[in-house]
Design a protein that fits this description.
The chain is of the alpha/beta class. The chain has helices at residues 14-23, 41-50, 69-77, 105-123, 175-184, 202-211, 233-244, 260-273, 308-325, 342-346, and strands at 3-8, 29-31, 34-39, 56-65, 93-98, 139-144, 147-153, 193-195, 253-257, 279-283, 297-300, 332-337, 352-358, 361-368. Strand 5, helix 4 (105-123) and strand 6 (139-144) form a beta-alpha-beta unit. The chain is elongated.
Length: 375
């Protein structure tokens, strides 16, 4: 069975997810925060297990114009719900409406739910309420510019929850955000990699997972595991295939932090992710780092606060980064910060800036491309 599928991701990472899907062999179409593709049950499992930058994979059941609540009710009811939901399914309905005639989200949710109940009650010959005691099928109705899209979320808790991070530092980056940053750079596993403000280790760990070709979702569970229209063996097969694809390549990945407590947390997380031996975490201040290695990549997510003393500390750190990194001309540097005046304190204009949103916070990725040393 072929399904219309959509991967969702943080704004600014659409091209990263699209490239990931294209590298897997899918034909894609991109909109804001969404990449559409087609696939069968195995593809649903495969993309959930392997996509590094996405938030979730949704199955599109229908799209139609909905100018009235009647349009919405009939469009939803026309979906063959019994093909997807067993009689005892739990099916919570989330609703969103943007720039549409039907703008009351509670009403949109309620009408959608009523239409599904109507359809299932007819098919299953139920005269009383549906039990909703079985497995969960998370549904969403989303209306954008009067076009309603009905989806089942195949993922469950967001794909950033890889399952390895038990310990967190202050304001940690989500795992899929960290992976997307690595995928945006020119880093390859045969190059050195350095995260100077490693915190709980997420960026370095995601780089190691990429370097070793370890699927990010290899250990976690998904909502689709309990869908009756999908064979349970599919996830087992995809996981077994993923285990077979892990390589033993030697990596040069360094994670530095001024705080020894964070280094210990990072080591615990790396151990859980199965990449402890691939990363050298060490307590070192940004200004004290030096290396003879060449042609590497730095990704930094330095702490940045809105309070005045935090801003001063962040800007002093930016100046230190500029002083140290200018002595490393063959390295490419990618620095994520909410300080839009970063270049001024770093002391150099970026090769390129990319606007990203870390949650609701506007951050820019300042990119300084290295001049590769030819040996």
């Amino acid at each position: 069975m072929k399904y219309q599928l959509v991967a969702t991701m943080a704004a600014g990472f659409e091209s990263v997810t699209a490239h990931e899907l294209q590298d897997m062999g899918y034909t894609t179409r991109t909109e804001n925060g969404k990449v559409y593709f087609e696939g069968d049950e195995r593809d649903i499992a495969y993309t959930n297990v392997w996509l590094r930058s996405a938030d979730r994979i949704k199955i599109i059941l229908a799209q139609f114009k909905a100018l009235t609540f009647d349009d919405l009710f009939e469009g939803v009811k026309a979906i063959p719900w019994a093909d997807y939901l067993p009689m005892d399914a739990q099916f919570p309905v989330a609703g969103r409406a943007v720039r549409s005639k039907l703008h009351s989200e509670p009403d949109v949710q309620a009408i959608t739910k009523k239409a599904i109940v109507d359809s299932l009650s007819t098919t299953y010959h139920r005269h009383s309420r549906l039990p909703e005691t079985g497995d969960k099928y998370p549904l969403e109705v989303s209306i954008l510019k009067d076009i309603a899209t009905i989806t089942i979320d195949s993922t469950g808790s967001s794909l950033f929850k890889r399952g390895y991070r038990v310990a967190k530092g202050p304001a940690p980056l989500k795992e899929n955000f960290a992976a997307a940053l690595v995928l945006l750079t020119n880093w390859h596993p045969d190059m050195p990699f350095y995260d100077p403000t490693t915190g709980s280790g997420t960026i370095a760990i995601e780089a190691a997972l990429i370097g070793r070709n370890i699927a990010p979702g290899i250990k976690r569970e998904f909502a689709f595991s309990n869908f009756q229209f999908m064979k349970p063996s599919i996830l087992e097969d995809v996981r077994a295939d993923a285990h077979a694809k892990i390589n033993d390549r030697e990596l040069t990945i360094i994670g530095g932090d001024i705080n020894q407590e964070m280094i210990e947390i990072a080591n615990v997380n790396a151990q859980n992710a199965g990449v402890l031996h691939d990363i050298h975490f060490r307590q070192v201040a940004v200004k004290d780092f030096h290396t003879d290695l060449e042609n590497g990549v730095i990704i930094a997510n330095p702490p940045y606060g809105k309070r005045m003393n935090d801003v001063e500390v962040a800007r002093r750190l930016a100046t230190e980064m500029g002083d140290v990194y200018r002595t490393m001309p063959t390295w490419s540097k990618y620095i994520l910060t909410g300080d839009l005046e970063f270049e001024r304190y770093y002391g150099q204009k970026a090769t390129k800036r990319r606007k990203l949103y870390n949650g609701a916070i506007r951050t820019d990725l300042f990119q300084y491309w290295g001049k590769r040393a030819h040996k």
